[in-house]
Structure formats: structure tokens, C-alpha cells
Write the C-alpha cells for this entry.
Amino acid sequence: MKLSNREMNIIFKTSIKGNYIKVMDAFDLSLFEALKPPFGKIKIVEFTGSKKGDRVHIRFLSPIKAEWVSDIIANEITDDMALFVDVGSILPWPLTIWTHRHIVQKVDEYNSIIIDDITFTASNFILTMLMYPAIFMGFYPRKKIYREYFSKPS
């Protein structure tokens, strides 16, 4: 956890089996469905992909009702990593800023590390601090999901 300029930053790193480019290519609707939080009901309204110009729109149906729209503003592949970045354009209260860098770092030809690098701000400092546990609990289960998802034979 890092807090600077009223922004909170959370980073999760998960070691998985798989070539980093193939892992990044698997960031599709099927993986997005698998990553849905285990609590509450969520409807995926729109998922156009994970390349610059794509959009993800989800609707929370319970325990709260809210819309969340993120736009993919960047994607890149280099010799040692692949990434895409989503930025929230419509966020549920109390979030006001959301940036999620999805990074797949090459370890070797057969292993990678998925990095979820999340920066967020709520409508005030106290709410930003209070959002940390909720966001942590929403994203921590992804570690297990990633490991299981990428251990399946392709």
C-alpha cells in the first residue's frame, strides 16, 4: 500500500505458468468472467477487449446498484512485458479516480508474473483510506483465480 497526493496504490503480483504474450492474449471476456468478485451480483454490460480504445462496462446489481465504465487507454508489448491500462470514466461512489495497470512480466519463456497495479482516489481522504480494504478484498482473490486459470491445459 502506498499513499501519495491523496491517491492510494495497491499492487498484487502473481506468479503463473505461461508465456507472457500468450497470457496477455488471454485477457478476454472468458478471463474477465472468471475474475468477477465472489460477492455480490455483477452484470457485464459491455466488454470490447483489452486494447487501446476498448471499453469495459459493468453494472453492480447487489449489494449496491452502480455503474462502472473503464476505457482502455494504452496497451504495449516489449521484449520483457506486456500491459494494458484501464481508466475509470464512470465510477461508483465514492471513487473519483481509477487507474488499473495490468502488467504481465516475462520471467522466462514458460513463466510470467501478473501484476495488478491499481491507483485510486475517493471523494475525500478518509473515504480513500476506507476504500482500501474493499478494493484489497475484491482483488486479492484474483491471485488464486489467475493461478488456476493459467494452469489449465490450453
Summary: The chain has a mean pLDDT of 93. DSSP finds four helices and eight strands in the chain.
